[in-house]
Amino acid sequence: MLASFAVAVLLFLLTIPLGILRLHLAARLSLIAGSAAVLLGSALALPESGASAMLWSLSADQVSWSLQPAAAWLLFWGVLAALAAFLSPCRARRPGLWYAGAAVALLGSLGVAGLQEGIAFLIAWEFLSFGGAILLLADGAAPAERSGQSNLYMLALLEIGAVALLLCVLLLGAGNTQFSAWSQSWAQYGADAFGIAALFLIGFGAKLGVLPFYEWYPGAYGSGTGASGALLSGVVLNVAYFALGRSILDWLPVSTATSTGILLVAVGTVSSILAILYAFQQNDWRRLLSFSTAENANLAVVALGAASLFRAEDFSALSTLAWTVGLIHLGGHSLAKGSMMLSADRSADVQGDYRIAQSRILALAPWTLGLGAALGAMSLAAMPPSAGFAGEWYLFQTVFQDFHLHNTAARLALALGGAGLALTAAIALATMIKVFGIGLLGGMSEEDRRRPRGNWLVLVLGLLVLLYAAALPWTLHLLGFANWPADPTAVQAMTRGAFLIPLRFHFAFISPPLLLLVGLLFSLLPLGLLAWSHRRQGRRRVPVWAHGLRQIPAENAITALAFSNALRVFYSFVYRPQNRVQRSYREREYFIRELRFNYSEAPFFGPWLFRPSVRLVEALADRFGLALQNGSLNAYLAYIGILLLVIFASVFYV
User: Fold this and answer.
1) Which residues neighbour 414 within 8 Å (Cβ) at sequence distance 6 or greater?
2) Confidence bin at 23 (pLDDT 50/70/90)
3) Residue ranges of the domains in the chain?
4) What is the DSSP letter of 552?
5) Nearest to 436 by CA among 470, 462, 469, 475
6) Interacting residues of 84 by C-beta distance below 8 A, sequence separation 6+
7) Measured between alpha carbons, how far is 108 from 123 in angstroms, rounded to an integer?
8) Mean local confidence (pLDDT), 106-110
């Protein structure tokens, strides 16, 4: 197992210079081989567990790397989606730099998943952020100015999270930076332990899209390609969730678990609702899917919050159930989101951009694209028998077990969380209907016809979404070989034969393989009727229903705005919609030459949180900028001396 990861690290390191030197084919092959090595190592780590390697000595501390089964599970499915992106035709303007950025991001992912020392972990975390920025800049899928602003905004918010993690390292690792000592260090803070939990939520939540950090998602994802989105929504998101779960379940004192669990459930529920509400209004594939990524990540955060609440009252089996549900959900999400992100690239191949507009793509593409995208959309909409359905079914069954808890606030948090999950699931269904129904169907002029490429990869990921759910009754036991989470036997109790159960069979049960089999059998009926009709009458073309009109107008196609406008009006207090009409005239205002209509939704947190911060920094820069940048060498040396004194003072204080 360790040999596979060592080979992967060497191949990723080799990819970086190959990509910078623009040796595209060699860089791509090295990246694919490294990803395959990670898949092999992750698969071996699930049943073996516990293998570790000493990497180097950092001062007096040893830096080691080991992979827990939970991390191996998330790595496997995330890297599988990334591998499909690497095999897909590259749409980046600078492919070599894109491969190098992907290698940096994967190196960071391996570090976050397995490093056991705080300082090395922070370095790997920065690799994760830096690699994602390189990916998006190399894509060149947006104008340079807009792409640069989006990436700077992303990095600024991610650095807020990095500072929060740095504070956690200073508070918990002052005496010993090894993770094995952090549980004992954290317990010494008493009433202040909750503040450290909030810092961890800020730090890891910056990548998970916890409010208000999800607001960097649409701009950053919208400046890149779908392949970049598959990496960011898969392996990068997964390892960030694992890191948050390790801090909450492995290090957090039990005395603080209730308040932390309530915080996670509340923040995760509100974040998922806001994210899917904004996803429903998007008219760009990447922006819509990015908000969907934030929504699914926060559903997993709700599961983690439930795990913390059950842990606080010593329900170790229920805590393990909730944590495992988060792993199941994000594993399936990686495959489904990879399928949809690659479908977005194929849509751009046909129509030249990522707009969600009726474009007759399914009529032009092989059936592989339509089937793969349909299966991916079904999973993200939590429709049976897909992976998303299994994950969200388990999540609902977990929050429904709030009656076990004795703490009233904890029970109320899970009850309200369940209501929020129901609202999220309903809007997610409408969102996936929008992106699939409008984004892949409709008409297109003859001159715009271009056949999309790489459709078999979309199909493979879509079929894996089904196989993932169907195989869960037999693959879930792989997570039971861990000494963490707390009760490995609970993982074994989550299945019975071909059925998935929330620890007790009489409480609830489903069987994804049987659902898949029944669905295939029922599909034979409409297929048989279609074959019989075609044999008797041949293929018939009939006009669609156009609201009772006899003459169907050519402009009858529905737009992304029209599809979601009802919800836009109903939740206007959230969206604060803006409609702008611009007119240009020839000579007089009676003769309109051009009419432009733009619509948008105001960010929920931007005007109240981020914009005042920007104005404050600009005001301080205007006030003190001339004094600080006065050109005096003595003044600059004084600044450096003061900074060194501050650093030394902070070290001695800690």
Assistant:
1) 265, 306, 309, 399, 402, 405
2) very high
3) 2-517, 560-601, 615-653
4) P
5) 462
6) 230, 338, 342, 457, 460, 461
7) 8
8) 96
